[in-house]
Design a protein that fits this description.
heterodimer, A: alpha+beta, globular, B: 415 residues, alpha/beta, Aspartate Aminotransferase, domain 2, four-stranded antiparallel sheet, 39% helix, 17% strand
Chain lengths: 147, 415
Amino acid sequence: MMEKLDELYREVILEHYQRPARKGELPSPTVSVNGANPLCGDELAYQMKLDGGRIAQIRFAGKGCAISQAAASMLADELEGKTPEQARALIRSLKAMMQGQEPASPDELGELSALEGVRKFPVRVKCAALSWNVVEQALDSHEKAGK
Amino acid sequence: MNAFNVETIRKDFPVLARTVNGKPLVYLDNAATTQKPQSVIDTITDYYSRYNANIHRGIHTLAEEATEAYEAVRSQTARFIHAPSERTIVFTRNATESINLFAWAWGRSRLRAGDEILLTEMEHHANLIPWQMLARATGAVLRFVPVTDDGRIELPRVEALLSPRVKLVAITMMSNVFGTLTPARAVVELAHKQGAIVLLDAAQAAAHMAIDVQALGCDALVFSAHKMLGPTGVGALYARQDLLEQMDPFLGGGEMILDVQLTSATWNEVPWKFEAGTPNIGGVIGFGAALSYLEKVGMDAIQAHEHKLTAYALEQFTHVPEATIHGPTQMIDRGGVVAFNLEGLHPHDLGTLLDGEGVAIRAGHHCAKPLMRRLGVPATARASFSLYNTMDEVDRLMEAIRGAQAFFKRQPVKR
């Protein structure tokens, strides 16, 4: 069990939880979306500044467990500089990993691959998934606004 | 009554012998649901093995036996809460359904726009949402007795909110978050002076203390079997017989009718008027075994044991500087529930880490979201005790908490 817990709470996850990257607010975001996990009360908000077809800046704010907040932080880290299409591809890979599939390349997910250990704790998958669900909503609302 | 012996009691609960993640189970999620003694499991098995039949209709032996056993538990339930008659006991699925039944059947045709329903800020969603729905349907208004920072209800605040506009007061007897024992009897007295009736939510209290509805003077009281050693899917509503007789039916169907024409029907007598359709017969019969078990051990002995466990846990928490304990500081106001937060360790992470040590606690908002907002926390951890918990298990909990704290404090590598 201790090994399983070490897998779940990898050091990179604790590091992002205790010292999150890109936490805060943007002065004039292009898109801003809030999400919550009604069952556990975790809250997450993402703000993005899109520029030249890329996510130029991304910030998040939230309250919740180590898994939800570390996932939010790592995802923000990975998304900055990506196009919305690349962001969606990354999220597809994350979802696939949660369902047990190996990523196409080992580097594809970056630090987010640390979330692999969450798979062994089915009740905690929703903690990690909150981050990409909110980002997907943000991308959807940006796309809609652009049409 | 025999002297209270927790080790003897533990032997009656088969699940307590199992291990979780290689460690002996420490089950401290009793406010969510309690474990079941072998006698309850056997009673249910016996019903399905020997006399499974539908009740109140067949004229064969099995149907008679099942009906007799089912109705005997109604009488037993009435005795357990000192109700004046078995006719005041309605079986439901759970305390939630009992409240919905009462809210709808009593309130829908009785409440007018501007009438008030008085609740407290620390009610379980089960004692909040049905009243919100009733208020929406009738134009009645909800009012809330504020909860103090240490999770108590103060009588002057109740009194200040009572007026002839208040038609009903619905309040918990024991908070599922704080473990607070509320001054239910005094609230009933105050409410009755203003002409309001009172429903008590005993979902938590019923497994932990003796309940006497006549001494309390309440007009209605609800509880769930599964929180008091019984099976899931069975609850009860106690209500004054004259109220039940005036109330409209809740669900329509078989069993709740006296006579039926194609376009009209007349209602059965109470309490059967409120028991439409085939009930959870095996569950109710199993609940009878749970009540027998509680009676055999004795509610006062159970309360004293849980009081000791809770006081010991609270004392142990004083050695954890990162811990914030929610709820009353005086043991006199408390039942066997300890809700807490640890600085730097979210309740869900704590819950996962404790499970790794075989310790089961609850982490979340405990179906009391407005109260979580009032506390300013998204969630809390909660350890809740039952008659089979031991001092050693409190030690195991504290040890596991210290282990979880150390685990989260390990130095992360620089990235």
